Amino acid sequence: MTAISTAPSPQNHLMILMCGIAAVGIQALMLSPLLPDIAQSLAAGPVEIGIASGAYGAGVALAALVAAPRLGQWPKRQAIQIAFAIIAAGLALCAAAFDWRVLVAGQFVTGLAAGVIIPGTYALTADLTPDHMRSRAMGRVIFGWSVAMVAGIPFAALIADLVDWRGTFLAVALISAGMIFGIGLLPRASSTAASRPVAYGQALAVKGIRLALIATFVFMIGFYQTYTFLGDHVRHLHHAGAWLGGLVACSYGLGFGLAVFFDGFIDRVGPTRLMALALFILGINYILLPISTLTLWTAITYPVIWGLAQHVGIDRHGAVLFHHLCGGRPRWWCLWQRLCNLWVLRYVSCRHCKPVDRRAAGPAFLTPIG
User: Fold this and answer.
1) Could you tell me which of 123, 142, 132 has the C-alpha nearest to residue 21?
2) Is the four-CA dihedral 102, 183, 11, 270 of positive or negative sign?
3) What is the pTM (predicted TM-score) of this model?
């Protein structure tokens, strides 16, 4: 008599991992459309809310220092499950916040866990996928960010309008708790654990990695400085509820996801040349973005273009690093990815951050020249 296996198929493995990235993406990006409601409820100003947003980055950065070099030694599935449990607890703490400092603590805890989940998920994807299918598999998992932007953030904004922002945090906490079970359905990784942690000195010694870190900084500072406060900006400008911030995020996510239809063209042009073009377009985008928010329909539709350019740039930048600089080794990739959070943290949490700032365009123009 043949036993019937209840384990998910390889395709379902990728679906579960994609859902994990989507779950992290929702909680990481949902703060933007909720900022005015949270600030009013906690009697907090832009400085305090900026600190709360920066606390998430601080948690991710600390996780980078501790977890990324040792990721190859840990059982990835169990580490991701524990991290999702911590995220659920951190989100529950945010929902119960009676003071902005409690919100800061909750954001810091969720950032710590996200700093393990994101690189752990990418590394587990590589472990569970044959070499010849790894690039496509990674693309499917990364698509979870688009799912979060197109469906997750508008859903979070809808809950905030129907209930309140605390209900949104509780709902996302339940999603994270559900992912503990989902990740448990995955098989154990078959790859051999690294014999010793990867030192930061080794990572920085890789040829071309320093310029790659600068390019990553450009992507991250341009996006997070703008996106974090864009929802608050358009809501105040057009006197709208959280639904408008959700639609802006959805529009960006739609453009980010539509970029997958240009994969053939991207492969023909080549990663290096197209990455420079994408950065140049992003620089122009950050000049046009303040103008696009002046009318309601352009505020909602323009982020599609932004998302397209951002996806192409990040995808090609990641391809160069993963295949050329890092030799395809997931632990190098994860270490690089987390190093850069330290640079962005101070800028995003700074009290002088503007909702939509043309200064973000400068680095984007300069990077292709370098």
Assistant:
1) 142
2) positive
3) 0.75
Residue pLDDT, tens place only, 76-92: 899 999 999 999 999 99
Give the C-alpha separation, 198 to 332, whole Å.
Answer: 8
**Both structure tokens of 158:** 């809808």
- Structural Rg of the chain based on CA atoms: 20
Please identify every stretch of the chain with a pLDDT value under 70, giving residue numbers as ranges: 1-10, 68-72, 135, 189-204, 206, 263-264, 266-267, 270-272, 315-370
The runs of H, that is alpha helices, within 129-208 are 134-142, 144-147, 153-162, 165-184, 200-205
Distance CA 333, CA 321 (A): 7
d(CA 319, CA 315) in angstroms, rounded, equals: 6
Query: How many degrees, rounded to 5, is the angle at CA 85 between CA 228 and CA 113?
Result: 45
pLDDT, residue 346, reads: 44
Instruction: Answer yes or no: are the C-beta atoms of 127 and 76 closer than 8 Å.
Output: yes
The domains found in the chain, sorted by start residue, are 10-369 (1.20.1250.20)
Helix (H, G, I), strand (E, B) or coil at 206: coil
Between CA 345 and CA 234 the distance in angstroms is 23
Contact 203, 119 (CB under 8 A): no
Q: Mind listing the pLDDT tens digit for each residue in 207-220? A: 777 777 777 777 77
Which string of DSSP letters, residue by residue, matches 178-193? HHHHHHHTSPPP-SPP
